[in-house]
Amino acid sequence: MTRPRRFDLIAFDWDGTLFDSTALIARCIQQACRDLGVAVPTLEQASYVIGLGLHDALQHVVPGLPAERYPELGRRYRHHYMAAQHDISLFTGTLEMLHALRERQHFLTVATGKNRSGLDEALAHTELRGLFDGSRTADETFSKPHPRMLEELMREFGVSPERTLMIGDTTHDLQMAINAGTPSVGVSFGAHDHASFAPLNPLFVAHSTAELAQWLLHNA
Questions:
Q1: Nearest to 110 by CA among 74, 152, 54, 163
Q2: Which residues pair with 12 in a beta bridge?
């Protein structure tokens, strides 16, 4: 007898959860700061803002920059990221995990701090076509940890919060889940130290994609 699904909708963060891009993003933030001659954040400081929308992330990491210079900083970040983005890829085992979840007929979605053009470019790769049913990005709704991304996805697919699961590598992801009233799962191989997840009460913290896949197939 087939066990009923616990969750109908699974929302994944992108960078640091499915895509092995955390170190690159942090380095690109640092390079953009060097280009503008402003204080360069540490890798830890730059990693902390991953998952936020780009404007919010840059304001957090360079709080003293005049407002009119943030677009310039964003352009330099994108320049460095675009130059190196093809050197990174999905975490090993991610495709197999997503196909297994699709076979169980979950709605699979993405809730990310990336902008729409960046996510669409990533999703256009042949290996990812048709795997995701929906997505939301920070430039078309509110940035994490505001719950709007999850609220819009739940409304689109007609799924209640208790039947929705958010999976991410940052406290921004897990706080968004709390704000939306949904359970969450954390992964420790992305941007934030998993010790910071405890106050946010994720159902599980996975230390590898294989561990995440195993937990999902037995518990989701």
A1: 152
A2: 110, 167
Q: How far apart (Å, rounded) are the C-alpha atoms in residues 80 and 87?
A: 12
| Partners of 11 in beta bridges | 109, 166
Distance CA 210, CA 217 (A): 11
Beta strands at 134-137 and 164-168: parallel, antiparallel or unpaired: unpaired
CA angle, corner 71, sides to 66 and 77, nearest 5? 110
Sheet with 134-137: list strands edge to edge: 134-137, 107-112, 9-12, 164-168, 184-187, 205-206
- What is the rounded CA–CA span in Å between residue 110 and residue 118? 13
pLDDT digits (tens, 9 = 90+) for 161-209: 999 999 999 999 999 999 999 999 999 988 788 899 999 999 999 999 9
pTM: 0.80
